[in-house]
Amino acid sequence: MLQKNTDMENPYKILVVDDENDILEFIQYNLKKEGYEVHLAHNGQEAIQVAKKVKPDLILLDVMMPVMDGIEACKQIKSEPDFEKTFVVFLTARAEEYSEIAGFNAGADDYISKPIKPRVLLSRINAILRRKNKEVIEQKLSAGNIIIDRETFLVYKGDEKIQLARKEFELLYLLAGKPGKVFTREYILEKVWGDEVLVVDRTIDVHIRKLREKLGDECIGTVKGVGYKFEI
């Protein structure tokens, strides 16, 4: 059994979910070297059970698994209030656009492609978890008839309560913080995904589309060739 490096303790708990033992051991070894507390599961159903016990800060979730696949597991995890602040990152060898979009629609925060490179894996995880260490910011933001509550990760439009995936929430919070201001795609990628996280342009488009579906098309405007803005 691998032991945690006690010279490099890390406060974060990571749940790694994959049906291949060699991948689990490989990722566990590299994460424990960084001092992370690591928990393992072999399928989506087991992942949900383990997550409820250990309350991980981040879940690395394979897409293709027996019993329950990663997409369904992500949906169930994100539907639980206890996991509103838990990051979910998919591990996948599938490059098809539809699977990536399905993952984001299920509430995923990022994708890491197989074969996994340790330095890239750790860089991406560190970039995501750094957002937990950001300075305290305003907990509630009001823009028109929309209230965004960072403490509960809920959005209210009038009397309607709307639950967003984490990246959807952070994107909305960024745009609504300065109504009318046009945010370039490059700026959005840097502020919402972090400059160490590699994503493609369609990632923003998917999240904007989901926000419009939940809040209404009129809330977010497109400035062709530039970016997006929040409109009251």
Low-confidence stretches: 1-8
Question: Class of the largest domain in CATH?
Answer: Alpha Beta
CATH superfamily of the largest domain: Response regulator
**Major sheet summary line:** 5 strands, parallel
Tally of helical runs: 8
How much helix is in the residues? Answer: 25-40%
N-to-C order of helices and strands: EHEHEHEHEHEEEEHEHHEE
Number of domains: 2
Overall shape: globular
Report the end-to-end length measured between terminal Cα atoms: 56 Å
Taking strands numbered 1, 2, ... along the chain, how are they ordered across the largest sheet?
A: 2-1-3-4-5
- Nearest-angstrom radius of gyration? 18 Å
CATH fold title of the largest domain:
Rossmann fold
Strand content: 15-25%
The count of strands amounts to 12
CATH architecture of the largest domain: 3-Layer(aba) Sandwich
| Structural class by secondary-structure content | alpha/beta
Average pLDDT confidence is 84
Describe this structure in words.
The protein has 232 residues and is α/β, with parallel strands linked by helices. The protein folds into 2 domains: 6-133, Response regulator (Rossmann fold); 140-230, Orthogonal Bundle (Arc Repressor Mutant, subunit A), CATH 1.10.10. It is built from 8 helices and 12 strands. A 5-stranded parallel beta sheet has the order 2-1-3-4-5, sandwiched between helices. A 4-stranded antiparallel beta sheet has the order 6-7-8-9, covered by helices on one side. It has a 3-stranded antiparallel beta sheet with strand order 10-12-11. Helix 2 runs parallel beside helix 3 (70-78) and helix 6 packs across helix 8 (201-215). The radius of gyration is 18 Å and the shape is globular. The model is unreliable at 1-8 (pLDDT under 50).
